[in-house]
């Protein structure tokens, strides 16, 4: 049966295999037939029960093979058993449907329903529920025409209210007749059209609300019902096209103008109008994203950035007042569709991808990232002293709704990293965006910290040496390792996600990152022994050093003499020049730096208004925010400047000194054991102090640190 293979193994024991695609179903069917020695072109290979087979041979095809019981109250249980029993047999379903149609049986059943309801015959009503539900599962359009007629449909809904599994019947008829209201934008005078609209709404209600979700064995039983609804809608649209009043209404909504209307409506204060504009915009994007992209690119030639359609959509997403950001999630999905290169067209004369992405990064990206940059700037974050350190640690003062918004923005940026190659790469480098994102690793909301980590994971997953240089020169692993050590011995999602990041680097053998991690952070990580990831990184690092030494030893000594060595500073200068150059990708030209249409802190007015409404709440959060202290592990101070990421301090020489061994991960360190590591770099690019607190201070810290959560068993 298309994507189903069904069979019987006993009188009342039916089984089925369900497949996602017909091709897979056909393949397994052929193998079954091969084992059985049957022809796979035949739809039914199972031998029929002897009595049924003889019965079929004795009677002509035009004769109904099922005798229906008389339609009486005392026969309802028998009728229900009959309808239920035929559903497993395609042949018996066909014969029952034919019998029901020929004898006008459905209308007789619905008359019994009215009798049972008047008599409050609960048992009979439960039987009628099973009967009507079974008739729907016969999947016959001719029966649907009878059941969904004006005369019968409300009684059908009434039968389906009396589900035996429910303590009380539902009130579906009351909803359809009293609660649901028919709204007309323009008067519809055609009675046939009105009747078809009412019927379609009620049938859709039966399918979506009343009937339970079909199981895998029933998924094809209602395919005809779906088709019935679809063709009803086609008929409604065809009839509407013949309505002259409706044609006049839509004359102004031509392709060039419709996006203008959406733009105007989306900027209004009325929530209902904005909601309607969002719905219209979603239909436009689903119907033709290319049409919307073409409009916004033309709009950019005549309008300021603030009133561009996409920027209005982004600002509506940012300013969503719903605590769960339901509207923002919907708008984010639409933006994702618009910037997805997979649905962009490429013709001989123009490439939609390059044109639109250039437009988006020059005119819209600064609006999208405004909340992220605003909430990770130094003046927006508070500084708390870290115990045992002369430096301060940045903690993002984000409330829950802001954290949700930032998570949505990060999700979209992560999508850009995966699909936009050099456009997003240039933006990340110019804005030092990854450093700003990693500030959110300190968020008190774990889901936001995971979003920041996921953004970095996607960048590393590209295995792009340009990104790798940016990460190592900016020392951007530091906040990730701090988060891992802050997390302590808790085995949670954050712990697993960070370890997976380093495991990916180890498995993929990304040499530049391995060397950076081992040389700068191994002393902090070697105590983590419940996974072998970090020891594996050290092994990879040492193996690579051995290979390099062997290569060096194989070079003739004259080439290794000082006369033929270049000055170390010259080598580093060459590296800096390479790092600062735009990397060209095969078949793609590197776009120029993103135009800075506004100063970084000159964000859209709508966002500023939105943020002002939260000031009172944020001030309360700041007063109640627990003070961050030493988190029971290595602690580095994240003091790299943004310029370091762009190679400003590329010539800095580094030295690492470590004393004593860190405590093992199971907490078996001796009392008052401390470890201090100084990581210094000339020109002040990195200075850090780390220490382990006494074990007896752990309980106190557990209460005060905002990043601490209840410890799980090892």
UniProtKB/TrEMBL annotation:
It holds the Pfam family EVH1_PP4R3. Residues 576-714 are annotated as: Disordered. GO terms for cellular component: nucleoplasm; protein phosphatase 4 complex. Residues 1-36 form the PP4R3 EVH1-like domain. Residues 78-247, 261-543 form the Serine/threonine-protein phosphatase 4 regulatory subunit 3-like central domain. Coiled coil: none annotated. Gene3D superfamilies: Pleckstrin-homology domain (PH domain)/Phosphotyrosine-binding domain (PTB). Residues 595-626 have a biased composition (Basic and acidic residues). GO terms for molecular function: protein phosphatase activator activity. GO terms for biological process: DNA damage response. Residues 639-670 have a biased composition (Low complexity). InterPro entries: ARM-type_fold, EVH1_PP4R3, P4R3-like_central_dom, PH-like_dom_sf, PP4R3-like. Residues 576-588, 692-703 have a biased composition (Acidic residues). Residues 671-683 have a biased composition (Polar residues). Belongs to the SMEK family. This is Serine/threonine-protein phosphatase 4 regulatory subunit 3B. It comes from Cathartes aura. The lineage of its organism: Eukaryota, Metazoa, Chordata, Craniata, Vertebrata.
């Amino acid at each position: 049966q298309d994507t189903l293979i069904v069979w019987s193994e006993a009188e009342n024991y039916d089984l089925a295999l369900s497949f996602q695609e017909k091709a897979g179903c056909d393949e397994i069917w052929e193998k079954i037939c091969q084992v059985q020695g049957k022809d796979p072109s035949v739809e039914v290979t199972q031998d029929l029960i002897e009595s049924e087979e003889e019965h079929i041979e004795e009677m002509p095809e035009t004769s109904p093979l099922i005798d229906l019981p008389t339609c009486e109250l005392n026969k309802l249980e028998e009728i229900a058993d009959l309808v239920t029993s035929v559903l497993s047999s395609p042949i018996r379903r066909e014969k029952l449907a034919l019998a029901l149609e020929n004898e006008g049986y459905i209308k007789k059943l619905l008359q019994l329903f009215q009798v049972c309801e008047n008599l409050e015959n609960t048992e009979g009503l439960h039987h009628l529920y099973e009967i009507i539900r079974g008739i729907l599962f016969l999947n016959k359009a001719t029966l649907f025409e009878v059941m969904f007629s004006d005369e019968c449909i409300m009684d059908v809904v009434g039968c389906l209210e009396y589900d035996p599994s429910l303590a009380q019947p539902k009130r579906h008829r009351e909803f359809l007749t009293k609660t649901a209201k028919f709204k007309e934008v323009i008067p519809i005078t055609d009675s046939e059209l009105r009747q078809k609209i009412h019927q379609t709404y009620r049938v859709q209600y039966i399918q979506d609300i009343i009937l339970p979700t079909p199981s895998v064995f029933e998924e094809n039983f209602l395919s005809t019902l779906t088709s019935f609804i679809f063709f009803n809608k086609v008929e409604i649209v065809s009839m509407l096209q013949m309505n002259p009043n409706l044609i006049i209404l839509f004359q102004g909504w031509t392709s060039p103008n419709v996006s203008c209307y959406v733009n105007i409506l989306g900027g209004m204060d009325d929530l209902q109008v904005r909601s309607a504009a969002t719905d219209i915009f979603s239909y436009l994007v689903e119907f033709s994203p290319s049409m919307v992209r073409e409009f916004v690119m033309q709009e950019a030639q005549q309008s300021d950035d603030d009133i561009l359609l996409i920027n209005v959509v982004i600002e509506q997403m940012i300013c969503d007042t719903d605590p769960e950001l339901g509207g923002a999630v919907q708008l984010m999905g639409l933006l994702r569709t618009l910037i997805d290169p997979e649905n962009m067209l490429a013709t001989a004369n123009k490439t939609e991808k390059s044109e639109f992405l250039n437009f988006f990064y020059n005119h819209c990206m600064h609006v999208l990232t405004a909340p992220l940059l605003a909430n990770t700037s130094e003046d927006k974050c508070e500084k708390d002293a870290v115990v045992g350190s002369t430096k301060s640690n940045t903690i993002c003062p984000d409330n829950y709704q802001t954290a949700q918004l930032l998570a949505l923005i990060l999700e979209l940026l992560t999508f850009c990293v995966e699909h936009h190659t050099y456009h997003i790469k240039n933006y990340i480098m110019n804005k030092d965006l990854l450093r700003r994102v990693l500030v959110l690793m300190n968020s008190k909301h774990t889901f936001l910290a995971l979003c920041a980590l996921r953004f970095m994971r996607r960048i590393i997953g590209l295995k792009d040496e340009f990104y790798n240089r940016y990460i190592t020169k900016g020392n951007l692993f530091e906040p990730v390792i701090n988060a891992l050590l802050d997390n302590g011995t808790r085995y949670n999602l954050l712990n697993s996600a960070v370890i997976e990041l380093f495991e990916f680097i180890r498995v993929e053998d990304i040499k530049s990152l391995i060397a950076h991690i081992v040389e700068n952070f191994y002393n902090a990580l070697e105590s983590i022994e419940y996974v072998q990831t970090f020891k594996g990184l050290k092994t990879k690092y040492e193996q690579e050093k051995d290979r390099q030494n062997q290569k060096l030893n194989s070079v003739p000594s004259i080439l290794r003499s000082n006369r033929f060595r270049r000055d170390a500073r010259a080598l580093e200068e060459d590296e800096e020049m390479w790092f600062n150059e735009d990397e060209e990708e095969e078949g793609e030209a590197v776009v120029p730096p993103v135009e800075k249409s506004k100063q970084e802190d000159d964000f859209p007015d709508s966002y500023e208004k939105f943020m002002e409404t939260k000031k009172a709440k944020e001030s309360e959060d700041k007063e109640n925010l627990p003070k961050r202290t030493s988190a029971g592990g290595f602690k580095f101070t994240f003091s790299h400047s943004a310029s370091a990421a762009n190679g400003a301090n590329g010539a800095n020489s580094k030295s690492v000194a470590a004393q004593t061994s860190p405590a093992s991960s199971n907490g078996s360190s001796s009392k008052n054991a401390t470890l201090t590591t100084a990581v210094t770099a000339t020109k002040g690019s990195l200075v850090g102090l780390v220490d382990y607190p006494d074990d007896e201070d752990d309980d106190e810290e557990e209460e005060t640190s905002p990043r601490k959560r209840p410890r799980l068993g090892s």
